[in-house]
Amino acid sequence: MPGRSASVELAGGRVRGRDGAYLGIPYATAQRFGAPRRATWSGELEAFAPGPPAPQPKRPISAFAHGVTPPGAEDCLTLNVWTPPEPGPWPVLVWAIGGGWTIGWAGSSIYDGAALARAANVVVVNFTYRLGSLGWVGGNWGLLDHVAVLEWVRENIAAFGGDASRVTLGGQSAGAANVADLLVCPAAEGLFGRAILHSPPLPEAANDPERSARWAADLWERVARDAPADEVVAAHEALLREDAWRGTRGAAWPTLDAATLPVSPLDAPDARPEIPVLVGTTRDEATFLFRAVERDPPVPDEVVRKVTAELFTEPTRRWAFQRAAAGGEVHLFRLDHPSHDPRLGALHTIDVPLLFGTFRTSDVARHYVHDDARTREVSEAMQTAWGRFLHGDDPGLATVPGIVYTSTP
C-alpha cells in the first residue's frame, strides 16, 4: 500500500497507521445498556480504515448529512487520530460528531481531520458513540462513551505527539450539546481544559426522565430488549410514527440523571468556569432541517427563522452571556458564510467542512459548500483562529471573514 506507515504502542495494544492517520482504533467495547469497558487486542492492529457506525436508521437526511453509511454494529466504539507532520507535543482536539443522537458516523469524509491537524498544529481525534435507543434508553450510555474517549486520550495521546494536559473537547449539533452536558457531568471532571460548541441545541441537551421512561415503556412493548440491533432501530423508527410520538424526536437522548447528568447545562451556565469556551451558531441553522431534503408542502420562511432562533441562536447566546457574567472566558460567534445553494444560506453543519477543510476532498462536504476562493479564505481563517484557541490563545474572531463576533462581558 502507498504511504508512510508507523506503529505506536498503546495501553490496549499496538496499532499501525499511515501518513499521520490512525483510523478505527477501539477505545472501548460496548455492552448493551451498560457502561463501556476498556478495549484490548492482541498483535498489531492495522488502523487504516474507520470502524463501523453505530446501528442507525436510513433516514432521507442521512445521505445529505454524512454520505453513504455502512451497516452498523453494536461494537462500534472506535476513534480516529490525525497528527501534524512535525513531532509534538501538540494540543489535542477531541471532536464529538452531530446527528441528533440518532444518526452519524465518525468515518464520514466530512470529519476527516488531516487538513485541520496540519493547519492548526494539533492532534485531532473524533469518535463514534452509541446512538438512538441503543445509546440512550435506560442510561446515558452515549455520554459515558464520550467519557471513555477522554479517558483513552488522557492515557494514550502522548504516543501520537499529543499533550494530555491541553485537551479541548469540541462538537457540533448533538455533539455540541454533549459537550455542554460534559461540563456538568461529574465523571468528566478534569478530562478536558477547553471547550468548543458549534450549534448546540441546548433546549434538548437534558431530557426529562419521565418522558424518557415513557419512551422506554412504549419501545419495549414493540421489541424485546435482547432483540438484534436492527430490530431495535426499526422499533425506534416505528414508534416515531405512532400518535403519541409523531412529529417529535422521541425521547432517546441525554437524560437528567444524578450520576451522569445531574442538571441541564442551560440551568448551570457557570459550571466549571475555569474552562474557556468557543461557542456559536450559523445564521440559517434550520434550513438544514427543512430544506436540505425537500418537504411537501415547503416550510415557510418564518417557521425556519423561528426554529433557528428558539432551538439554536437564542438559548446559545443566553447561555454564553450567563457563563461570561459568572466569570467564564467565552468567545461567541455567528457564522454567516453561505452555501452555494441559495435556499440553504448558512445552514446547520456548514461550519464542519469549513473548520475541517474537507470541502476540498469530500463529496459529502460539498453538499454544504463548494471549493471556491471565498470559501477557502473563510476556512483558512477559521482554522487559524480555532488553532489559536486550541493552543491557549485568544482566537481573534473579529478578524475572521464570514464570522460575526459578539463580545461578551
UniProtKB/TrEMBL annotation:
InterPro entries registered for this protein in UniProt: AB_hydrolase_fold (IPR029058), CarbesteraseB (IPR002018), Carboxylesterase_B_AS (IPR019826), Carboxylesterase_B_CS (IPR019819), Type-B_Carboxylest/Lipase (IPR050309)
* Catalytic activity, EC: 3.1.1.-
Indicate whether Cytoplasm appears among the record's keywords: no
Q: Which PROSITE patterns match?
A: CARBOXYLESTERASE_B_1, CARBOXYLESTERASE_B_2
Residues annotated as domain Carboxylesterase type B: 6-293
Q: Which keywords fit this entry according to its UniProt record?
A: Hydrolase
- Family of the protein in this entry: Belongs to the type-B carboxylesterase/lipase family.
Could you tell me what this protein is called?
Carboxylic ester hydrolase
